[in-house]
Amino acid sequence: MQKKIKVMMVFGTRPEAIKMAPIVLQMRKYPEDILPIVAVTAQHREMLDQVLELFKIRPDYDLDIMAKGQTLFDITSRAMKGLDTVLTKEAPDLVLVHGDTTTTFAGALAAYYHQISVGHVEAGLRTHNKYSPYPEEMNRKLTGAIADLHFAPTDTSKNNLLAESVKDEDIFVTGNTVIDALHHTVREDFEFKDEFLKRINFKENRIILVTTHRRENLGEPMRHVYKALKDLVEEITDAHIVFPVHKNPKVREVVQEELGGLEKVHLIDPLDYEPFANLINRAYLVLTDSGGIQEEAPSLGKPVLVLRDTTERPEAVSAGTVKLIGTDRDRVYSEAKKLLIDSDEYKKMSEAYNPYGDGEAAKRIIEAILYRYGKRELPPEPFKAAQQ
Ligand code: UD1
Ligand code: UDP
Questions:
Q1: How confident is the model at residue 173 (pLDDT cuts 50, 70, 90)?
Q2: CA nearest 275: which of 191, 214, 351?
Q3: Given the residues 150, 213, 214, 308, the one annotated as active site
Q4: In testing the pocket of ligand 2, which one of 276, 288, 289, 296 has its CB within 8 Å of the most ligand atoms?
Q5: Mean per-residue pLDDT of the chain
Q6: Is 136 a catalytic residue?
Q7: Ramachandran region of residue 208, left (φ > 0), alpha (ψ -120 to 50) or beta?
Q8: φ, ψ for residue 216 (rounded to 5)?
């Protein structure tokens, strides 16, 4: 009998968990060929556990590294140390990491130190600015330099890798697994369980969904955004803000100072993925500095104003459903207001468009692994975005 491929999936934060979950679930369908192992660093604790619970994933290893106010050095060194032990014990054939967090980079580096192959999911996203987003741009570049297999979500990300001399045969265009996850969760008849969400009157009020967490936006940039939001809800009667606030105390402090106690601004804890994704689907508009939400909202036909100066996800910007607006107070106010008062402008940005995936990314990733390890004759058909 041919040996099974031992694949260790390493992740640690909320978005990695959401985007790796479809792969973990899909891998269970290949028990003859693959032995999956899940190792979480728990760089995030509560926000990771929310996702593990939803997708019913019980990690084989939990390094539990999170500390309040952790630095990049804390995360990197604790993750590396913990992974060394786990990799020594398990000696997998392949380590899969996702995206661009510090867990991602530590996972790739730890595997490399053990001379274990690395597969990079969501490979090839680039802004070409090493401080924006920080430290994600370097995390994904360094991970890409180590990886043996690159699962690029789109042709654009594949081209970024080719430009860095990654070999064509090592790149598979798969679509983004976030769309697989979205297919699991968003339903038109979804009923919120949370009392506050249940009470929202989506017919009479327009909901602006807001999230912020990027390290380069901490402090003053975020403060400018919040001031603009306050001006906006004071002026536009039917506009309400729902803001699930990231657990980072540095985010929470400024949010509370600027937006605490306002009647039309609803500050809530991070939502579980299922209600959150369904809330995007019912919101009028999204303002965010998140990466994942930039991928989800366009496929649900929701305009996104991105509170950043750069993006590694240019596809939806070209399509016109996402706009980069930065964090300047006047700009944030005027761009959001435009979408609230100008229905033509709103309509232009709310055409559903899905450049990031078709719900089959996890399957393609696994087929690519089987192909690479000689358990399948052909590589998967690459993901092709539908023409607009
Ligand atoms: C991290 C990633 C970022 C990703 C983001 C997703 C790095 C350097 N950053 O940023 O790429 O976009 O996750 O959200 O890898 N905290 C909790 N409970 C939680 C999660 C966080 O209390 O469940 C608090 C802790 O005090 C922690 C702080 O938030 O120290 C910041 O977490 P950290 O992972 O360092 O940075 P993020 O901004 O979450
Ligand atoms: N998300 C969630 N609950 C929330 C806010 C976001 O489940 O309260 C999900 C969101 O749908 C997306 C992911 O978290 O899939 C994005 O995570 P985040 O913005 O923290 O990180 P990024 O994508 O910027 O790395």
A1: very high
A2: 191
A3: 213
A4: 276
A5: 97
A6: yes
A7: beta
A8: -75, -10
Q: 170: exposed, middle or buried (C-beta count within 10 Å: 0-12, 13-18, 19+)?
A: middle
* Spatial separation of the C-alpha atoms in residues 38 and 21, rounded to whole Å: 10
Cα 376 to middle of ligand 1, angstroms: 38
DSSP for 2-28, written as a single string = PPPEEEEEEE-SHHHHHHHHHHHHHHT
State if residue 321 touches ligand 1 by the CB under 6 angstroms criterion: no
Distance (Å, rounded) from C-alpha 139 to C-alpha 142?
5
Instruction: Out of 13, 211, 296, give the residue to mutate to test ligand 2, the one with the largest number of ligand atoms within 8 Å of its CB.
Output: 211
pTM beyond 0.90, yes or no: yes
Exactly one of 33, 122, 258, 335 is catalytic; name it: 122
DSSP string, 207-259: EEEEE---GGGTTHHHHHHHHHHHHHHHH-TTEEEEEE--S-HHHHHHHHHHH
Three-state SS at 151: strand
Residue 353 has pLDDT above 90, yes or no: no
* Residue among 14, 43, 125 to mutate when testing ligand 1 (max atoms within 8 A of CB): 43
Of 42, 51, 46, 45, the residue nearest 78 (C-alpha): 42
- CA distances to 8, 21, 60, 275 from 194, rounded to whole Å, are 35, 24, 31, 9
- Find residue 10's DSSP bridge partners: 39
Is the CB of 266 within 6 Å of ligand 1? no
| CA–CA distance, 336 with 356 (Å, rounded to integer) | 24
Is the pLDDT at 160 greater than 90? The verdict is yes
Residue nearest to atom 24 of ligand 2 (CA): 290
Would you say the CB of residue 292 lies under 6 angstroms from ligand 2?
yes
Measured in Å, residue 163 CA sits from the centre of ligand 1 at: 31
Answer yes or no: 100 catalytic: yes
Instruction: Give, in order, the Cα–Cα distances in Å from 115 to each of 79, 147, 148.
Output: 17, 11, 11
Above 70 in pLDDT, residue 1? no
Does 15 sit in the ligand 1 pocket, CB within 6 Å? yes
